[in-house]
Amino acid sequence: MNQCRLRSLARIRRSLALGLRGTDYHVPARQALRTIQTTSQRRGVHDLDSFANGCSAAYIEGLYNKWKRNPNSVDESWSELFSGNDGSTAKRRPLQVAHSRKYRRPPVERIAVKARSGERTASGGASAAPAAPPSDWKNIDDHHVIQAIIRAYQSRGHLAADLDPLGIVGPKKRTSVDGSQRHAAREVLRQHFSYIFNDLNTVFKLPSSTMIGGDQEFLTLKEILDRLERIYCGHIGVEYMQITSLTKTNWIRDRFEKPGGLDLTKEEKKLILERLTRSTGFENFLAKKFSSEKRFGLEGCDIMIPAIKEVVDRATNYGVESILIGMAHRGRLNVLANICRKPISDILSQFHGLQATDSGSGDVKYHLGVFQERLNRQTNRMVRITVVANPSHLEHVNPVLLGKARAEMFQRGDTCGSTVMPIIIHGDASFSGQGVVYESMHLSDLPNYTTYGTIHIVSNNQVGFTTDPRFSRSSRYCTDVAKVVNAPILHVNADDPEACIQCARIAIDYRTRFKKDVVIDIVGYRRNGHNEADEPMFTQPLMYQRIKKLKPCLQLYADKLIKEGVVTDSEFKSMVSNYEKICEEAWAKSKTIKTIKYSSWIDSPWPGFFEGRDRLKLCPTGISTDTLKTIGQIFSTPPPSEHKFETHKGILRILAQRTQMVQDKVADWSLGEAFAFGSLLKEGIHVRLSGQDVERGTFSHRHHVLHHQSEDKVVYNSLDHLYPDQAPYSVSNSSLSECAVLGFEHGYSMASPNALVMWEGQFGDFCNTAQCIIDTFIASGETKWVRQSGVVMLLPHSMEGMGPEHSSGRIERFLQMSDDDPDVYPDTCDADFVARQLMNVNWIVTNLSTPANLFHCLRRQVKMGFRKPLINFSPKSLLRHPLARSPFKDFNECSCFQRIIPDKGPAGKQPDCVEKLVFCTGKVYYDLVKERDDHEQVETVALVRVEQVRRLLPQLLLFTITMIPRILQLCPFPYDLISQQLELYSKAELLWAQEEHKNMGGWSYVQPRFDTALLKKENESRCVSYHGRPPSASPATGNKVQHYSEYKALITSIFGELTPENKKRIEDRIKKQQAKAKADAQSKPSTKPPASPPKGSSPPPGKGESGGKKRSDSSPSASIAPTGPAPRKPLISLPSRPPRGGKQRSGSAPPPDLVDDASAARKMEPDAPAHDGSSPSAWKRSGSAPAPGVAPTASASRSPSRNPPSPAHDGISPSTRQESSSKKKSGSAPAPTRTPRGPFRTAPSNTEFIKRRPAKDSGSRNETQSTPGESELDPTKPQP
Ligand SMILES: Cc1ncc(C[n+]2csc(CCOP(=O)(O)OP(=O)(O)O)c2C)c(N)n1
């Protein structure tokens, strides 16, 4: 089939699908279409060319309607088609007939053709075909043509509409066959036009698919064409035939087509003029007073203000009490002044460059938010108008606004958007260009995200900065994206104020009636450059030549109304001068304003929340054991039996495990989370959790929404049934968009402080597609706009061998954006230190490792006297880790959030005996604990420490212990608790262990803060050394073998190699476990689930959910354990301890006299490049030397086989070594002093220096380098 035919078929398919989609239409229509297609595939092109055009859907529809009334009233071939009798012979006939008839063929001829065709059929159809009833076939066919013409205007009329005030774009008027000038000549009517009859006065009966006749059933052809032309090809181009709902298309058709439906009264016209005077007057005034200031004026689209005003008026009339507006820069000040009625003097004061009296960084005037509550004089009703503060990033305010609107609806108990309405104002280039527009639009019909219709207004000035539309989009209209949600799109010429107002009216009526999105595309121009200082003639010379000649819309409309006698010239002049006077008075007033307050531009005030509250009071977060039991029991109970809810067997097992936990008074992650949610719900706090797959949980651990196994859409959520008077709980799987959904939840959290609003990333890695929301709203929103939000981001994060994009939530980025000063040791003696620290930081960053801490942390979010975003890196394997459970006592009234969890092992009683203090955060803690056990450090490490322990107490030679406190709240940094630990273990070597790469994870954040804490201590010479993966461009390897080898390198760098004794012990232990498991299995063949699981369901209890998942897949520690599948030899070799040379001590602080001067000098070399991935200055600060025992370079980790890594015995990268030796050669070794960095900086000795000493690397490299071929080694056996 050629392209033309394909297009024809596509068109007819669409027409049929759209036009005939009524309840009982579509079956035969589809069949008809299928028949047509089948036939067309068999036939030549000519069969269809004239038949399958864009307008024949109307024709077919007409026939179909007729057939429905009386099957004999249409040709037999159509009858066969519609009745579904599409036998092989019948299939071809309708086409032949329809085509050959070409609408106009006289009946006699047509019947003849039919007969001929019948003769040709094998079935002898000619003799069987009934004779056509006597009728005026010419007349019928002519009516079909009229119907097709009407349909053509309805669906394609907008293509010929006169939308561009500049007259550059759009079809020109052409002379039609009737001699009149018509826009629609080519674009719309195409070949129909050639069938226009010679006699324009012929009267036709109007089909039911049009309302142009009003009460009249008959119109002359001329009148039909004139009316259609006026409605569809005038200053409004309405795109609505794409809407799949017949009710909606009929409604729109009705509104536009009904005669007189678009007429305005004199008063209405006068009101438009008044509003236009204000809109234009405001821009003129600003232009006069601040000619060179950027204000992003609306000139050229001035009518947008009266149009919005119309929407507001009408909406308030319909009962809307709160209107939320999201918009960018263009016309924003005008909206504030003339829609919100923000005092003009306040707006003008923003131009005066005044000092703000409150804290924060502020924002430019055309980004500020506004919240105004006022009486709408037109409707005499109170209305709240909010313009949400927004960043420069175009369109990204959209989801935020929608979330805020949705939350307001929730607060008001508005379940259909009747009291709250969002309006979004777009630019043409950004509407079509920014993906977030599409992503946000897709929320419009989702049950938990819908705002029951948003009014979109495009201020379409036909240029984006300096870029013409033809270079900025591929679609015909900038609004085409709205078609994905079936929104009607009303394009309107900005220089026709009345048409604009009509569109505004229809839009708000449509939204009120159908609760769906609608778009008004106001096509205007931009009188100035992108901003007022820009020269547009550089880039759009011809456009601007025209613009210069064009009278402003206000003038054009005033002339029109004066001509019509609606206003007099003097009335108009006084309108203009009155508004000028208002502006002048405001100007004078603005000059008396001496300071500004950022808080007077807040868009989301929380009245009553801050007043009378001690913001620094941290309320307890623990709850009673009774509450725990109640929540636990309900959360672990299947739906009540009376509901006959069929629950999946696997879920029943999970619930049984939960019951067991409740009985045992311990909680795993999901139970801990449920305790937090349930207890808040009990206290009347609304909880909302949204994100991809959150109902079940990406890792299948949550299971809040249970699905009936044999009834569709029947679900049960036990957290909805905790207490009779509990607050509502909303957990919702979202669309697959991080940007829109996170923005939405952020907006939701802005509406009220009394809600816990959470967004969970599927994996933390994907949150960067919402980076703009994170950067411009969550990180900096409070600073810029004094607006608080307690939104929670839950970002699954941990290195579990799942590859580069399933491992890291990018802790480092969030920490890097935290605004606590790394160099200032805070006043930890302050009684309110903890709360003050939280209040003063821009967000809280946590990496929690116990369910109890998650519980307290989430509850703290709403217990604080202020709101802060919480970024929590949540676990993956820990969700089921047997050690990652919390006893009930950790949730009770005596418990609280723990910012750090000190190691509570036996060594705590003898802190002086502790040799190593390893700080860490997150999941790696559990790995370290296991490895510490496996390494039996007490006996083995002492020897390694020979050199180090010289400065320790003698008994340490025999008693060496590693302490592992966990830092759970990374930001704000818990200085007080860290300092306590440093004090307590004053002789221990300090280590920071992380599983992330060196340029990632928490290291770059904690290192300077550790330094600050250490420098605060007198006579402190220690610093913290780094133990983790080397720097890398990629967050994680995708190669399991490499992952494990990196992991092992990290472990070895802290604990050294497993000794033969260690390995023997581990082997014995495993054998014992295996034997026990075997014995258990023999004694009780299966742990009984409540009922036998169906195929493919969850694993049996005993193994639990985790039992079903191979540990080796997710847990490095599991995989390197001897029980795991035989791991391959790591590609990166591990350092052995003790290191060669005797003096070296990986990661230990040598006494100052042992510091290698030369390596220290290298470290201090100011110009030394940062081979380890840190910046040179960070490198200088020490503590940032390459990790001992880890792969030395990023390149090595990228391609180990081609670029084999050097051994990590000394933790020095080859490049660093090279660097060192070259520096040595050049003899440029300065004294080993540290550069003071902050107020507390002195020059302590550097534990890193000795680790960086070059080893005999060539030998060791050969010794330890392994190739994949050699890698099938038992990890329990000693490594070479
Ligand atoms: C996401 C984003 N990209 C680029 C810019 C820079 N920028 C500011 S305005 C503008 C042109 C916008 O054109 P349009 O959407 O048509 O609005 P107009 O300014 O013409 O009203 C651009 C590219 C921005 N602010 N945000």
Automatic annotation (TrEMBL):
CDD domains: TPP_E1_OGDC_like
Biased segments, Pro residues type: 1087-1102
UniProt GO BP: glycolytic process; tricarboxylic acid cycle
EC code(s) of this entry: 1.2.4.2
Skewed-composition ranges (Basic residues): 90-103
UniProt region (Disordered), positions on chain: 81-103, 115-138, 1070-1280
Residue ranges of every copy of the Transketolase-like pyrimidine-binding domain listed in the record: 667-881
Subcellular location(s) per record: Mitochondrion
Coiled coil location: none
Pfam families: 2-oxogl_dehyd_N, E1_dh, OxoGdeHyase_C, Transket_pyr
Feature: compositional bias, Low complexity: 1191-1201
GO terms of molecular function: metal ion binding; oxoglutarate dehydrogenase (succinyl-transferring) activity; thiamine pyrophosphate binding
Record-linked SMART domains: Transket_pyr
Cofactor: Mg(2+); thiamine diphosphate
Record keywords, A-Z: Glycolysis, Magnesium, Metal-binding, Mitochondrion, Oxidoreductase, Thiamine pyrophosphate, Transit peptide
GO CC field: mitochondrion; oxoglutarate dehydrogenase complex
Biased composition regions of type Basic and acidic residues, renumbered to the chain: 1070-1081, 1159-1170, 1249-1260
Function, in words: The 2-oxoglutarate dehydrogenase complex catalyzes the overall conversion of 2-oxoglutarate to succinyl-CoA and CO(2). It contains multiple copies of three enzymatic components: 2-oxoglutarate dehydrogenase (E1), dihydrolipoamide succinyltransferase (E2) and lipoamide dehydrogenase (E3).
Family: Belongs to the alpha-ketoglutarate dehydrogenase family.
Protein name (record): 2-oxoglutarate dehydrogenase, mitochondrial
Organism: Drosophila mauritiana
Taxonomic lineage from the root: Eukaryota, Metazoa, Ecdysozoa, Arthropoda, Hexapoda
